[in-house]
Every structure is written in C-alpha cells, then in structure tokens.
Amino acid sequence: MDELEQAAAALRAGGLVGMPTETVYGLAADALDAAAVLRVFAAKGRPTFDPLIVHLPDAGWLERVAVPSPRARLLAAACWPGPLTLVLPRTAAVPDAVTAGLDTVAVRVPDHPLARELIRRCGRPLAAPSANRFGCVSPTTAAHVREQLGAAVAVVLDGGPCRIGVESTVLRPDPLPVILRPGGCTRERLEELLGEPVALAGREDRAAALALPAPGMLASHYAPAAPLTLREPGAPWPADPALGLLAFTGAGLPAGPRHEVLSARGDLAEAAAALFAALRRLDAAGVRAIIAEEVPAHGLGLAINDRLRRAAGKG
Ligand code: TXA
Ligand code: MG
Q1: Domain 228-311 has CATH 3.40.50.11030
Q2: 168 pocket-lining for ligand 1 (C-beta < 6 Å)
Q3: Cα–Cα distances in angstroms (integers) from residue 72 to residues 62, 69, 76, 197, in the given order
Q4: In 53-87, which positions are buried (b, 16+ CB within 10 angstroms) versus exposed (e)?
Q5: Which pLDDT score is estimated for 263?
Q6: What is the Cα–Cα distance from 3 to 158, expressed in whole angstroms?
Q7: Of the candidates 260, 264, 203, 273, the residue with the CA atom closest to the CA atom of residue 228
Q8: How far is CA 177 from CA 20, 194, 277, in A?
Q9: Residue 204 predicted with pLDDT over 70
C-alpha cells in the first residue's frame, strides 16, 4: 500500500494525517466525522470554540458543505485551487465540531497535488487546521509536523517545503467582503476580482465574527518560544549577541547577534515562504529574545505583519 493510500485509509478510520498544502501543513481529519474532528482539537491543544477549515479537492464539492453566494462563486472560480478560504453558510452535512457551532463554515481548495489526491482517495472533505500545537508557529515542512505532532498522526505526507509559507486568507464575502485573516491571497487581488473594496477586520471584529468568549484570546497566536518584540520603524538594530534578529532585507544589520534575513532582494513572496522556518531556527538557536522588523504593508506584507504582530502579542 503506498503512503497516500495508507493516509486515506487512516482518515476513513477516523485517524489524523499530516497533509501538505501550498500555505502550511495541515492536521487533517474526516470533516464529516465529529469524533475524528474532536481528535484534531485534542492533538493540537486547541480550544473547541475556534472553528476549522474544510478542504475540498475541487470547487465541484462546494455545495456538499456550503451555500455559495454570487461573490463566493466568482472568487472560487478565480482563486481555487489556492490560498483563499471562504466563510459561507453551512449545510447540514457539516458537524458542529468543525464550525464550533457557528452557522457558517470555512472552505478552501488547497493548491497542492498531494492534498487534493488525498481528499479524493478519502472520498470525504477534510477538516484541517495548521499542524502545530495551539499557539505555536505553523509548520512549513513535514519535519516540523513530526516534531510537534508526530505521535498524534498515522502518517505525515511529505510534499516538500510549502510554496507560500503563510496561511490562507480567510474572507467572509457577504453581506460585504471582509478579510478575517490576511494570508496568501492578497487584498489587492480580491478587490480587483470583486471590483469593490474589501475590508480588513481588526482583532475585535475578528473575535466578534467568531463570537469568541474573550476577544483578544488569539492575540498571541503564531508565537515562537522566545519572546518577540517589534523593532520601532527606523530605530537601529540592537547589537546584543544574546538576541536573535529577524530582518526583511538585512540592510543595516549589526555584526554579533544571530540573524535571519527573509529576502535580501526585498521580495514579499520570498519573505512569506521563509518566515515560519526562520522563527523556528531562531528559537532552536536558544536566543533570549527575538527582535523583528515589519515589512512593507502591501500584498503579502499584510499577512507577514499580521503574524509578526501576533507573535509579539499585539494581534
Ligand atoms: O492555509 C490555511 O488556511 C491552513 C491550511 C492547513 O489549509 N489552515 C489553517 O487553519 O490555517 P487554522 O485552523 O490554523 O486557521 C483557520 C482560521 C482560524 O482563524 C479560524 O478562526 C477561521 O479560520 N475560521 C474557521 N471557520 C470559521 C468560520 N466559520 N467563521 C470565521 N472564521 C473561521
Ligand atoms: Mg493555525
């Protein structure tokens, strides 16, 4: 039995699988099996009020789980497979465990051949959060998944390093389009496709959209183990060798502290793909604290800065 078949069999039996996608690795379970979905929350240590994304192999499966609006159809046709998650009214097929009891469901079609083949072989949509322990940095390689969740999964399918490196954009298209989480699909592209402005939810709006019991609860998501602080724009980098520096282009870095440069040529896509692995390396080096700089706030920069602010506890 090949690895894909082994993974599909584990999912059909209610087990968990590490699944590569173009954004980050997911911890997948059969989305229509409430007991399997609860195992995902338990393995991650994730609170059950934070709902999961349902992954489909193609847009043809959408109506099994959601009720698409005209905006949703337009975006699904233009952006799938790809890093866009749509929050839509759900159908009765989706268990409460997936949506945390909300009347909406988050859905996307991942742009990774192994993920889509896995879902097809399994024959069921897969619920998958990022495959990290709750509150930790998302995994962008199969090794990251094995380190944190190896004991919880039947198989980790190795699809290589993730091409995009930050999670999907979560968009609620109706009644007016709002980005609930900036991610791999840029706001500029969504506005161009829809021909109308797309709002960006702040932390409180996001919590309200999810009806979280404590707004700000998720502020320290995506955090490395070492405390992370954002460098004041324009301020010099500190030279303390006990620190780890996370730089965008690396211009002006002092000699001494350990550092990571996200993209020497200032390319935001390259920086996004490098972000989570760079945070993990600084952590593994045992630095006392991480000082990071924000990147230009357009395109993928919105997602990168969102993750950095959350890691700094300023979600
Ligand atoms: O790129 C990604 O989206 C990755 C890969 C594995 O697909 N998945 C991922 O899942 O990042 P997770 O669980 O780490 O993040 C899902 C986000 C959370 O912010 C959650 O609150 C939001 O989607 N979400 C899920 N269902 C929702 C709903 N019904 N309404 C609003 N937000 C929802
Ligand atoms: Mg996550």
Answers
A1: yes
A2: yes
A3: 10, 5, 6, 15
A4: bbbbbebebbebbbebeebbeebbeebbbbbbbbb
A5: 98
A6: 10
A7: 260
A8: 28, 9, 31
A9: no
13-72 residue pLDDT tens = 999 999 999 999 999 999 999 999 999 999 999 999 999 999 999 999 999 999 999 999
Block residue for tokens 């998944």: 145
For 44, 50, 207, 258, the CA distances from 38, given in Å and listed in that order, are: 10, 12, 22, 40
Query: Is pLDDT above 80 for 169?
Result: yes
| Terminal Cα-to-Cα distance of the chain (whole angstroms) | 44
Rounded to the nearest angstrom, the distance between the alpha carbon of 92 and the centre of ligand 2 is: 25
CATH 3.90.870.10 fits 3-166, yes or no: yes
Residues 6+ apart with CB under 8 A from 230: 291, 292, 293, 294, 308, 309, 312, 314
Separation of 298 CA from ligand 2 center, angstroms? 22
Q: What is the pLDDT of residue 217?
A: 47
| pLDDT tens string 96-149 | 999 999 999 999 999 999 999 999 999 999 999 999 999 899 999 999 999 999
Residue 45 three-state SS: coil
Q: Which atom of ligand 1 is nearest to the CA of 55?
A: 7
Q: E strand or H helix at 306, and its extent? A: helix 301-311
A 10 A CB-CB count for 46 gives 18
Same fold: 3-166 with 228-311 = no
Sign of CA dihedral 294, 300, 302, 307: negative
Q: Tell me, what DSSP letter sits at residue 19? A: E
Cα of 46 vs centre of ligand 2, distance in Å, is 9
CA torsion sign, 81 to 204 to 45 to 306? Answer: positive
Domain boundaries, the chain: 3-166, 228-311
